């Protein structure tokens, strides 16, 4: 352990004197990261943050560099739902994790430029958009789909939204104010020769970001057309210029695992959101965020309270029924819709399941968007091959967005002039049969194949990949800027509290901390048969009567709910009903012993 008991006492004394709230143990939103030993400090103001950083900086001077204390910032810590750290990658892991919870870090202020706003590090994107619209007649020209991530967290990882003519989120940044890892406060802007390299994806390595100055645009409403579609129709529309017709397009595809998914029009398994800015005076239409939130909550309820992902882990043959009926019904629906409302009310997805895993790849796209149809065709055909083996790796969806991107440093949306960038997410749950293999297969295709994609820094970042090769000269520019930064501020980089093991691995830096955190994996839970029955019964109650797909799904759930299964755990049962689309007819009963939630692995 790099922090001795004596040092812990010193930290605790300092925390007491500054009114800093201390707790032990930290988890991220999706709970794939769980650092039980971390000391979590909830900090109200800049001077308290400086005091903590100065103390750790001083302690680190007397330690061997590889035994240094690591301090990282993480989002979250407000006492409200969805105030969490949303990255899947271990960027925020440290011995000490600071959460900037005070008002000082949530301030939104005007600057001398009407379009540039100074925004505190911990302001969430959705609350920022709302305040900009309502109070300042401004809007963010691009923002993430999730409203709960913070300005500092999203920009650290080169986060992105949608918008054909828009940069990544970091591209909106005009200046950054940071607290250096020696406690000094520094503001940088375009006048700094490394500004573009640093702002694009700072990974939290240059200091703790206190606020950013963001270029906004005049507030507009958005008209949103939701076009219910399927794979062949979507591909036709892309070829016919879908992305050039609308300034903002987002697409969601829910795999339905038909043997002819590439050509089938049977299910509405794609929804295309097309947004166009309209004047603020345009009357709202079909814009009921409260109802939309309830609809999304219903979906989340399936996951969170009914624990459907746990059921699908143990009964993977249910997945096609689940996606064909429940996911397509709740997330896509049957008819095209048009709505008009403020961007912050029509754009964001407001409810999210915790039990998810996400691999997001970004790749350059030409004017004809051929790369998008190639990528989606590859995903669909690979999923079809898995389905032949009775594996259904994706239980959620594939999301696809097009934007212009931002160049510089470790930006994932680097692009050549006149080209675009596609961000493509594949979302599922860890432990779903075939998912790990599919994820690896896709990592090979996207990163090592013709698309030369870059993985999102906050989602799935395999550490066995040569990122110097992926980023080319920009990788070296980033490393050079990082070294220059530490030299300029007279801080020894090998003693930097901000560089954790993950950063050393991906950036090929030799400053590995000796101590490895004992990370507990908390998701991937299997359930016992009795519990499966009650989950299956609960889900049955949610299904409508009358639809063929609902009936198919109900029949499968009823088989699980059948008491007889528990009496004969080793048996294989024949389903009474054979689908027209070669659905699996044997049902392997789960006889795995129930596993406890949470198993510890050393990473
Ligand atoms: C359900 C879900 C939906 C998502 N949707 C999108 C999306 O639409 N678009 C997208 O791009 N991403 C999306 N993501 C990924 C997410 O936006 C990124 O991982 C983002 O970095 C999370 O930001 P955060 O505010 O939660 O910060 P964290 O995840 O806590 O931190 C991210 C990184 O920034 C560092 N950091 C945090 N605060 C500071 C600070 N003040 N100073 C310096 N460093 C800091 C942390 O140490 C860490 O390295 C989604 C993730 C989830 C779980």
TrEMBL record:
It comes from the Bacteria. The lineage of its organism: Bacteria, Pseudomonadati, Pseudomonadota, Gammaproteobacteria, Legionellales. Residues 33-219 form the FAD-binding PCMH-type domain. This is Putative xylitol oxidase. It comes from Aquicella siphonis. The keyword Flavoprotein applies. Keywords: FAD, Flavoprotein. InterPro entries: FAD-bd_PCMH, FAD-bd_PCMH-like_sf, FAD-bd_PCMH_sub2, FAD_lactone_oxidase-like, Oxid_FAD_bind_N. PANTHER family: L-GULONOLACTONE OXIDASE. One of its GO terms (molecular function) is FAD binding. Signal peptide: none annotated. Pfam families: FAD_binding_4. Transmembrane segments: none annotated.
